[in-house]
Design a protein that fits this description.
330 residues; alpha/beta; Nucleotidyltransferase, domain 5; 5-stranded mixed sheet
């Protein structure tokens, strides 16, 4: 039986998986990335995880044909080299393609994780049946990918669809890991929401138990923010609406430029957060010209959440390996 090995290195987890002849995942293994790890620790742990799966399935008769690697940072397609990862140091110093290919002795393809997530959702998930799919992940970072007619749309050797690094606040109140200020990721990623909450708390003058918690220096999470919002805390509501407005700016610009059939939202901040999704969709509609909206004012572009969830990048990596790395570069 033909099989494909796939990997994901993300902001919080390392994933290895095996896909069958049709490219669908049949086995997945996951370990948490340690907070203080760098690439020198993470890559060997990830490849060891994949080696265990490979040996397990070879013992069952699988014939591995290729490897797909989903990288949580920028990728130089022309040089076949990973570039900087904003969430884990050291990756740009490693020739990941050469290391992976040598380890497994198989044809190896690498692509940015969000582009692979877009591919997986377009072929097997929430984007099935749509011609042009835009995927955005809102998690440790914010990234995007475009799939057109079943293939990743590559528009440059060093990537495209970097929606997380669109400027949504020209005042640049919050710095981004990329070195710029005012980026969407700095305000609306998981860590960005924490920074945005702390920043807005210093300007809040009304009553709010949640603002008191934040200003008191207590630790809190994004989940705490959304819980306070659900409990009608006015400050939490202000933060969530501000975040939705920033996302609306970026996604509105995306629709104006690409007019995708569907936008799929993934990542820990967006997945399962239907009320927040509705806010984002409304904020986006306000930024889109009338001919791209229906008669009732709603967007023609559909907004949905990921179907493949935690396995989406590894699934996309397996599909790209099965495609032999083919993309649509038009």
């Amino acid at each position: 039986m033909d099989a494909f090995l796939s990997f994901e290195t993300g902001g919080t987890k390392l994933v290895a998986a095996v896909a069958g002849a049709d490219g669908r995942l049949i086995d997945v293994a996951l370990i948490e990335r340690r907070h203080d790890d760098d690439a020198q620790q993470s890559l060997p742990r990830l490849l060891d995880l994949g080696e265990s799966l490979l040996q397990k399935h070879r013992a069952r008769g699988a014939q591995f044909r290729a490897v797909g690697f989903g990288y949580g940072g920028q990728f130089d397609r022309a040089a076949n080299r990973v570039m900087e990862c904003f969430h884990e140091a050291g990756w740009e110093d490693l020739d990941v393609h050469a290391i992976v290919a040598a380890r497994f002795g198989l044809p190896t393809v690498i692509e940015n994780d969000c582009k692979l997530a877009a591919l997986a959702e377009a072929q097997l998930g929430a984007g099935r049946g749509f011609r042009t799919v835009f995927y955005i992940t809102i998690g440790t970072g914010i990234g995007g990918g475009i799939v057109h007619a079943g293939h990743i749309l590559q528009l440059g050797d060093k990537g495209e669809a970097e929606i997380g690094h669109m400027t949504v606040d020209p005042s640049g109140a919050l710095p981004c890991a990329c070195g710029k200020r005012g980026c969407l990721e700095a305000y609306c990623s998981g860590p960005g929401l924490i920074d945005l909450t702390r920043y807005l708390a210093t300007k809040w003058t009304g009553p709010s138990p949640f603002a008191t918690t934040v200003l008191g220096g207590d630790r809190f999470t994004g989940r705490d923010l959304f819980t306070a919002w659900a409990a009608t805390d006015e400050f939490a509501s202000s933060v969530v609406h501000t975040a939705a407005a920033h996302l609306g700016i970026a996604l509105g610009a995306t629709i104006q430029l690409l007019n995708p059939d569907v936008i799929i939202l993934g990542g820990g901040v967006a997945t399962g957060n239907i009320t927040f999704l509705s806010l984002i969709e409304n904020a986006t509609a306000a930024r889109v010209m009338p001919n791209l909206r229906a008669a009732d004012g709603r967007l023609r572009t559909r907004f949905v959440t990921t179907e493949l969830r935690e396995q989406v990048v590894a699934q996309g990596a397996a599909l790209l390996a099965r495609q032999g790395g083919r993309t649509d570069s038009r």
